[in-house]
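Re-run with default settings, no changes from the original entry. Doing this only to confirm the output is reproducible before filing.
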Amino acid sequence: MSRINNDTIWPISPHTAAKHHILMKYVQAWAPILAIGSNDRRFIYIDGFAGPGEYSNGEDGSPVVVLKSLKEHSSANKFLGTEFFNIFIEKNSNRAQNLEKVIKKRIEPVPSWLKYRIINGDFNSQLNSILSEVEEGNKSLAPCFCFVDPFGWSDIDYDVLSRVMINKKAEILITFMAGYVERFVFDPMHIPSLEKLYSAQQLDSIRASKNDENLVTKYFLENLTQKIKSNSGVSELFTISFAAYNNHNGLEYYLVYLTKHCKGLEVMKKAMFDSAKDGSYKFSDFDFDPNQKTLVDYGQEKIWLGLASSDCYNVLVEVFGKGKKIPIDQVKSTIICKTKWVYRAEILAKLEELDKIKVKIDKRRKGTYPDRGFIVLN
């Protein structure tokens, strides 16, 4: 939703629409993987700071985007016997009431496997209560995807987020307002809230760097992952970020995703990759053409290929070394889990064209890389 606004309903920005596109693509891919490909029967989506459910020109808010993605899913007939339970938390009572009206108008009736609950309350306290109820009953949280979308940074609580990630099958997507941290890092009024996210040394480094947006987010992610690991005992977390810029090409926020599972990383990478026009994992209102029929100009899609192939080659050499036969399925999983890139056959095709790899497989079509084959790094 649009940042720093106290109205009940406000206009949508192109970068917010891009964020919702990522959310939609992820849920569309996430739902059948969980409902059809796992033994779990109950799945939870939590939308913190859920908002009023709509924008001033009638566009859907994030709760409606998710409910529509589930209800209208092409595999919805296979979701019988499972339960997708959606929790929408919104502190502002006017927005919460509007959200209820919008859902009833745009989503009801819902199928038996799709449920939702709107909670009018503070995100952190409400989520803490939910997690405490689970823990006191000696239960484990059902597979959970938590979208944390605050208006600023002061409502981000490392302890609450780490409590979510203690659970085995939990993932978090956070709107982190790095652009606002940059703007207010020298403002005495905002120092107390920033000190909840950063050490004094980190804040000094951010100021000295002239508000390097990468450093702002790097420290945030380091501190959050350290907290999660120390509280949960998890040794490895997978992360990916997506930057959103306003119509002056100034940074608004990073959309930061954390998961313990490489499959979740793969799905989110694809959603983020498909929401940027050049493989950059960023979206700017500055060069967005409102006359485009889609958010993404796919005519520029191959701009990313040179950098992707170079990055992936360097990581593959680091992991496997040169001259060894490597199963192609391991090559694909390494690209997904160890680089910022999605796996696409064009990456290996580019490396083959540059004579960086040799492909060892019988009877394949040019440009294809079946799992049964091998590659050798030159």
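The chain has two domains: 14-296, 304-377. The chain has 13 helices and eleven strands.
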